[in-house]
Amino acid sequence: MSLDLHVRGQRFRDRPAPALSLENDGYYWFLQPLFARLRDECGKSLDLYGDTQFTRDDFPRLRALLTEAERLARRQPRTWEVHLGTQLRPAKRELRRTVDRDRLLELIAAFRALVDAADELGGTLECIGD
C-alpha cells in the first residue's frame, strides 16, 4: 500500500516529473494526524486509499503542514516507535514501526521540494493511493 505523489505540468512531457511515495509505515502514520487536519480544513486528503489533486491555491496550506511536521519531527528522539493500528486477526495485536528522525526529515524535505516544483512550474501535485 502506498500513496504516490507526482508533480503534473506541461514542462514534464520529455522527462519524468518529480515524485515521492509514502508507504503504509511509521513515517506515513506520524504525518497522518496532520493529513487528517488538512482534510478537515480544505476537504483534500493525503490518504493511502484515495486520490486527490492539490493546486497552487493549496500550496500554502501544504507548506504550513510540512513546517509543522518538521517542527514535530525535530522534537523526537533519534528513533522512536509509531503506532500503525491494531491487527484483529488471527490474533489481536498492536502494530508499531520504528521511525528514524533523520529519514523523516528527508521525507518532509522531499515533499516540500515537490510542492515547490509544482508551484514554480505552474503545475499541480497529484496524489494517487492504492
How is this structure best described in words?
This protein has one domain (2-129): Hypothetical protein yfbM fold (3-Layer(aba) Sandwich), CATH 3.40.1760. It contains three helices and six strands, in the order ββαβαββαβ. It has helices spanning 26-42, 59-74, 101-120, and strands spanning 2-8, 19-23, 51-54, 79-87, 93-100, 124-129. The strands form two sheets. Strands 2-1-6-3 form a four-stranded antiparallel sheet, covered by helices on one side. The radius of gyration is 15 Å and the shape is globular. It starts with a strand and ends with a strand. The model has no long low-confidence stretch (mean pLDDT 92).
In the CATH hierarchy, the architecture is 3-Layer(aba) Sandwich
* End-to-end Cα distance: 6 Å
Percentage of residues in strands: 25-35%
Secondary-structure content class: alpha+beta
Characterize the largest beta sheet: strand count, sense, and whether it forms a barrel: 4 strands, antiparallel
CATH fold descriptor: Hypothetical protein yfbM fold
> What spatial form do the alpha-carbon principal axes imply?
globular
The SSE order reads EEHEHEEHE
Number of strands: 6
Helix content, binned percent: 40-55%
Low-confidence stretches: none
- Placed side by side, the strands forming the largest sheet appear as 2-1-6-3
Give the overall pLDDT as a whole number. 92
Question: Radius of gyration in whole Å, from Cα?
Answer: 15 Å
How many domains in all? 1
CATH class: Alpha Beta
Count of runs of 4 or more consecutive helical residues: 3
